Amino acid sequence: MDFQGTDDGQESDTATAKPAVTIFVCASCRASEGSTEEPRQGTHLLNATMEAAAQQAPDVTIKSVNCLSNCKRGPSAVIARQDGWTYVFGHLALENAGDLVTGAELIATSADGLMPWKGRPDCLKRNMIARIPPFDFN
Ligand code: FES
């Protein structure tokens, strides 16, 4: 989602624009270490997150990735705001798909590019692995 301009070249209303937020879901994560289940649990989480976003926040982008180097704490996902912070989560369950979308909406509407603690789903509090500052952080 790009709210900085429109297809006809005119600037959009930046007062109502939300920054781009993407949820990256690891489709390769297994349900547990050594599991041979196919499709993998990460693929199920990816599909559930896409369904949740379609209902809750169609402007949030969902992307599939293969391995976020968080395998032992998977299923894993990342919520990244283009001009803000990036959050890595682990130990996610299928029922957390909507929570990921809620987290994406929270960070999209925050004034400082951080995901606010208030209103954040519990799984995004307990299962946060890391947060990464924006590229231009001072
Ligand atoms: S396979 Fe999902 S984090 Fe490595």
Automatic annotation (TrEMBL):
SUPFAM superfamilies per the record?
Thioredoxin-like
> Which CDD domains would you find in this protein's record?
TRX_Fd_family
Q: What is this protein called?
A: Metal-binding protein
Please give one Pfam family short name: DUF1636
| Lineage, uppermost ranks | Bacteria, Pseudomonadati, Pseudomonadota, Alphaproteobacteria, Hyphomicrobiales
Q: Which InterPro entries match?
A: DUF1636, Thioredoxin-like_sf
